[in-house]
Amino acid sequence: MNRRTLLRASLLAPALSPLAAPALRAQGFDHTLRIIVPNAPGGTSDILARLLAPELTRALGQNVVVENRAGAAGNIGADAVAKSAPDGHTLLLMDVATLAINPALFPRIPFDVQRDLAPVSMVIYAPYLVAVKKALPVQDAASLVAYAKSHGGGLNIANAGVGSLTHLTAVEVLAHLGVEGTQVPYRGGAPALMAVAAGEADMIINGATATQPYLVNGQMKGIGVSGDKRLPALPDVPTFKELGWPMADAGTWQGIMVQGNTPRPLVERLYKELRDILGQPAMVTRLTDLGGEPRPEGPDAFRTWLTQATETYGAIVRKHNIRPE
């Protein structure tokens, strides 16, 4: 490099530095991170967030806190992340099936899923468990159907909210079985579970991560489980496929997203740390014990899943003419 070229580069450097600074800051984290959970405490997303937060704190060298923002079928919490600074410090952790359903469910939502939220990584897949209250006089799928058909009012079925995948799955399964039921929406999976445990509702279809402990402890009875295999902790509960039920691949797909304009290097850094955390033997064991399966799939695979799920779940919403209350 000659003297004239070197002089020109030195004169340009101060002008370029303000533009380069954001890119440089995007490589790391310099203040507290928040994991927004758009559900009530105690549900699957909340459980996962509180498992991951201390691990991310160690990996990133910054405090990571969990913040619950329930309401509007997850839209309140998701909107908070969509409108956050695009610096990777505000994360959304939720059942991302909700994000695939909401565009068909709500005529207007305050953000665009594809534009305003950037996938970081899928976290886990956990199948859905069909569970009934302990006092219900049924032991398996056949007796559940017989009971429902012999009672004019059918079953009171708790769900995580109108249009949630727990709701859509219950509607599809009951339609297949020719069974009537009253869908009772709650503000998330945790309150819905509590309603069944307390005998307030008859049945729930919900993520195994949050539901399995109630069955293992004898507080509820298991009828069926989605996914391709029985759960090790509940070997007597048959799969939907074994029962001939629809929605065999339904379940809670938990993923992490950030604001849509977050620089790709920062997204990749978050993904790398999450992938490493989810690969830890102790974490794998913990998630397996909760009925979940680690799925550290990266941003591109996550976006492909979201696009396909939006089409599939949107068709179910339209088929059953499901509308928010």
Automatic annotation (TrEMBL):
CDD domains: PBP2_Bug_TTT (cd07012). The keyword Signal applies. The keyword Signal applies. Keywords: Signal. Residues 1-20 form the signal peptide. It comes from the Bacteria. InterPro entries: BUG (IPR005064), Bug_dom1 (IPR042100). Belongs to the UPF0065 (bug) family. This is Tripartite tricarboxylate transporter substrate binding protein.
